[in-house]
Structures are given as structure tokens and as C-alpha cells.
Amino acid sequence: MAVIAVVGGPGAPGATTTALALLLAWPLRPGRRILLVEADPDGGAVLAGALEGRVEAVYGLRNLAVADRRGLLAQTIWEQLIDLSPEGNAERLLLPGLTDPAQAPGLAYTWEPLAELLHGIEQQGYDVIVDLGRSGATGTSAVLARRADVVAVTVRSTLRGLSAARPRLAALGEDLAAAGTGADALGLLLVAEGPYSGAEVSREFGLPLLGVLPYATRTARVLSDGGDTTDRRFIRSELMRTARSAADEIQLLVRRRRQRLAPNAAPAVAPAVAPAAAAQLSEPGGPGPAAAGPVAVPVAPPSVPVPQASSAPGPAPYGQPAYGPTGQGQGQPGYAQPGYGQSGYAQPAHAHPAHGQAGAEPPSYAPPVITTGPVAPLAGLAPQPAAPAPFPAHVQTAGPAEDEGQYSLQQPMVTNDQIEDRYPYNPGEVLRAR
Fold it and tell me: Rounded to whole angstroms, how far apart are CA atoms 322 and 309?
């Protein structure tokens, strides 16, 4: 339904925590899924935070730069996703961010095709949340905010937070009006830490208020540093209740903007489910969901036929609709670029190595079926380090102490061979010199 950009700012207003709360609270109709993309150039925080290092940092955004240069961006992105669904049904997915800010320059030419790809999968049954952090809405990654349906800026209701947010909101509004979909895409997600109310902040900045999240450090720590997101107290907490209300306000703003930008556009039709998967999901005794815990989402390569549903117990794969053709195929995976109107976004002509020659039509691509397997939650942990080496064998206790109240002295027990091989001098003299 939408591509939502969540933007932070100085003072750590909680952009990633807010994006995770929206991911877990986002209402999903049958057949739809939601994807969170950690696109902060300063690096991602979910793997080491909410997931507590249970998944090895081999998946994520850093693998897309090389894939884009090879023309495999639309295929590789499905191999980098991690399932954060509490039920393990791959409805709430995560694309982890960078592990090192030094990797951000390598994505300079990937942000543009990634933005187009995210709009393409949005038309195929996905809602997308893009976490841009404090610096993702500027520079080369600013295209993700310009193409978003709604840009939600997290702001703390303290004087320091509001003072730091004012120039950023003004610059972001000007950039969206000049190069994006319009300054009316901006909205506020207020963290109620200070004395200023949501109505005051909205009136002062002249922006709509999308939600007011409580300053609940104990609940927010589950999203920032790890915890049990399936706990009933967390699900019913004030933070998650307000996040669900904020998700409803965001969807309402998306519908209003799309109706204004494309009043004659036909309503989006929910994607159809593959017959085999639909039959399996409709059976009362069909296979249940996968094991709980974050698992990587494996994917079949495009050249491999789509596997059929099996009658053996286990997680049931679900169908995923294919992209529509977008022009002459070039023999490489591609993606379709949607828009607000019937004609969609205009595809710019450029000579990017991942998209063929200048002016060429992007090739079509049929994304494979995503299936979740019974992967253990701790499968990505690194092995335990080896035990430290014991003390050298030549250092031993000389004997029992002469007095029970005194500790025994340690005298070196060294053989002549050890002295000749390892020591050019007498070890006893070294100990006396000390």
C-alpha cells in the first residue's frame, strides 16, 4: 500500500525504535506483508540490538551494491531478508543495514534503483518502511525520502529536540517540494518526553501530527536492545497501542495523497495467492508456522522451478505474484517502476551498469516464492572461543611452605635442555633481578 520513510535527527530521537514498533504494529490484510529496510548510512542497529546478535551479520544492505553492479539487485534482495514475525510466517521482514559506515559510499549508485525496486514490490503486496536514521534523508540516499509516500520525522518534545528538528524539517520540506512528491508528505511522530503537547508542536511547525509515542524506556528497550516481543505485556503496552494508532494515521495520509496526486487511478488489487499455497493454507490441518525466532528467508533462484507444496509436516510456502512485463527483456533480472497515476513514474534514461544501455527498457523479473524453513534462532552465533593456554610447564611450586601461615615461594624448575633452547641466560638470575 505504501512506502514510508522514518527520519531521525540529532540527539537520537528514536527513529529505529519507532520503525521497529511500526513494523510489529502495522495492520496487515490477508495476503499482504511488510518490509523494514535499514537504510541509515551510519549503519544498522537491529542485528546487535533487537536481535541481540542471534543472527550473524552476513545478510543486509551491504550485499546489494555488488549485486546492483552485476544486474542482480531484484534477485539478491530476497536473499538478504530476515523474518521478524512472531509467528514465523514471514509477514514482517527485515533488510538489515550496513555494519560499517565506511560501506555507505559503495551504495552511492544503488540508492536510486533500490528506491524504484521498493516501489515495485509495494505494488506486489508489500508495505515498506525505510529507516533513514539521522543522516539518510540527505546526500545520495535522499532519493529514498523523495520517492516515499510519507516521510515521518521522529521528534522528542523537549526544547533541545524541537530546536534541533526545526532546521532539518525546513530543509527536508524544501527538498521534497523541489525534487520529491511534495512537502505535504511530511508528518511528525512525537516522542512525549518533554512538556510540549502534540498540538503545540504541530501548530509551531505547521505539519500534521501522525502519532504521539510515550516516553517508555522499559518498553522501548525491548526494541532497541532486545527482549521478548511476544510477551503479552509488551503487545498490550502503551507504546505498541500508540504505534498501531500511528500506523492508521499514516495509512490515512497515504490514501489522501494518492487520491490527490492520481484521482483517476484505479484502486490497487490485492495480489492473488498461488493455487498450491492457497489450497494448503485453507486446509484446517495444514502445516503450521515455522519455529519462532529470527530466521533468514531462503529463496529459490529464478532459474529453478517453483517448488510445489508438500504434504509432509513443516512450514507452508506461500505464493508471491510475479512482476508484470516492463518492456524488452535483456536477459537479466529487473523490476517494474510503479507510480501514483496509471502511467507510473517515468523511467529515467541512464547508462547504469546494472540496467543496461542508456535509454533501454528495464527487463522484467518474476520474484521467486519465499519459504521459511525450521532454522534455529541461534544458528548464526559464532563458535565459542577456545580456552586459554595453560601456564608453562617449567613453572611449578617448589614445595610446601615451612610455615602454615606463609605462602610457598615459586622457584623455577628448568632443565638444561630448556635453558639451551629457550633461554640464553639463567632464569634464576632474571627472577632475582626483578
Answer: 18
Q: How many Å apart are CA 350 and CA 355, to the nearest integer?
A: 8
Q: What are phi and psi of 82, to 5 degrees?
A: -125, 135
Instruction: Select from 41, 151, 143 the least CA-distant residue to 98.
Output: 41
Strand ranges in 345-389 using DSSP code E only, listed in sequence order: none
Mean local confidence (pLDDT), 1-19: 92
The values of phi and psi at residue 29, to 5°, are -80, 160
Three-class DSSP labels, 126-160: EEEEEEEECCCCCHHHHHHHHCCCEEEEEEECCHH
pLDDT of 136 higher than 60: yes
Residue 59, pLDDT above cutoff 80: yes
Q: Would the pLDDT of 139 be above 90?
A: yes
* Rounded (5°) CA angle 406-411-412: 155
What whole-number distance in Å separates Cα of residue 210 and Cα of residue 226? 26
Which residue in 35, 43, 2 sits closest to 132, CA to CA? 43
Q: Report the alpha-carbon angle 76-78-79, nearest 5.
A: 65
What is the chain's alpha carbon radius of gyration, rounded to the nearest angstrom? 28
Neighbour tally for 160: CB within 10 Å: 12
Nearest Cα residue to 338 out of 420, 273, 427, 258: 258
Cβ partners under 8 Å of residue 173, min gap 6: 183, 186
Confidence of residue 282 (pLDDT cuts 50, 70, 90): very low
Which helix (H) or strand (E) is 222 found in, with range? helix 217-225
What does the block give as the cell for 198?
Answer: 502534540
Query: Angle between the 15-25 and 238-261 helix axes, to the nearest 10 degrees?
Result: 80
CA distance from start to end of the chain: 75
Q: Positive or negative, the Cα torsion across 268, 273, 275, 279?
A: negative
User: Which residue has 544486474 as its cell numbers?
Assistant: 71
DSSP code string of 69-130: HTT-HHHHGGGG-EE--TTSSSSEEEE---SSGGGGGGGTTTHHHHHHHHHHHHTTTEEEEE
Is the pTM higher than 0.70? The answer reads: no
User: Could you tell me the CA-to-CA distances from 26 to 127, 245, 268, 269, 289 in Å, in that order?
Assistant: 9, 9, 18, 19, 20
Angle ∠(186,340,19) on CA atoms, nearest 5: 40
110-114, 165-169, 313-317: which has the minimum mean pLDDT? 313-317
Q: What does the alpha-carbon distance between residue 340 and residue 325 come to, in Å, rounded to a whole number?
A: 18
Joined together, the cell numbers standing for residue 8 give 531521525
